[in-house]
């Protein structure tokens, strides 16, 4: 007689083998990720250190340490942040205002070329402004200097303080009708350039310290509703930039000879 075969028992724990393999692979994966992260951090620190040393040699940033501290989660050195450029001031605002006021008083006393009241001084946000009113320096609708005004400008140029200046042209709000200037923008810019050019020719100012701007009718000092107000608005301001101002770049729209 043949023996009866007993049925084999099914092993229900085979999944543990696959699970163990999966856990092992997962562990290996995270170990590799961790090792890569540590290597990248060291590379970033070396990279930042090399940049700091290079900029220190160029005198752009202060050198603090050969191995700059790293912020968590950041690949940049916080100590290597560029500092804003503060433009130097040659003289104080009070000094400049005294000098400009003296120039105006001497000009009024001498009466050389311009009438009393055609020069004025006022404080502005950036410093001190010397205003040259149109009536004494330019014919209506023109950027050509009056011949009789050159002696007054010559005196101003000889005594002008050593400071950074911006020459601004301004007009009233009446539209211009001229074959030369299409609008008040062009007229105000041309007048400012004419004054800047004259000052550079007859003073010790450096062209890199002089900039020119044309504002047309958009920065009035009086109401354009009256003839007196419009006359006050037609002017060229020599603004002495005596108050600290920060600039990202020092590019100037300078007028040269």
UniProtKB/TrEMBL annotation:
The chain crosses the membrane at residues 15-36. It comes from the Bacteria. Keywords: Cell membrane, Cell outer membrane, Cell projection, Cilium, Flagellum, Membrane, Transmembrane, Transmembrane helix. Pfam families: MotB_plug, OmpA. SUPFAM superfamilies: OmpA-like. Residues 125-244 form the OmpA-like domain. It is a single-pass membrane protein. It is found in: Cell membrane; Cell outer membrane. Belongs to the MotB family. This is Flagellar motor protein MotB.
